[in-house]
Amino acid sequence: MASAKDIDDFINSLKAKLVCSDLILMESICSADMADAVDAQVNNSESCPLLRETLQELRRRVCEPSGSYSPPGRNQPFDSSTSRDWYDWILELFKELLRRLQQKFQKALEWLHQIAAACLQGLRIAAEAVWRVLNDFCSSLEQLFRSLIQV
């Protein structure tokens, strides 16, 4: 027959597993909602169009799961006489959730900065090429007009 302590430990273990699985679901929902918000912002903004592939990759990076949350180990059991340890643990898990979401978006933003820098580099190279062609054309016109004036 199980003792009251064993039953309390079992109940606390179930609580911990439920909280961990709920945090994974909450992280997934938050990530998807934030990706939808970014999507809506980009679609409503004429000043920052993103290619559909770039937007999909950004969404994939933001919505990618960041791992599981672990219940307290054997060396950190809950004290069934007080719920303070339980709430402290939940608070720590929530802080971990927020930290993971922040890291995920920082990494996605860094990736987006790299994409933007590469695009701007490409635009600069294209503008320089157009400038060279235009400059060559103007030089040719200048030589043509000089030869016409000398005749």
Automatic annotation (TrEMBL):
Entry's InterPro entries? Answer: IL-32 (IPR028067)
Q: Which GO terms describe its biological process?
A: immune response
Q: What is this protein called?
A: Interleukin-32-like isoform X2
Source organism per UniProt:
Bos indicus
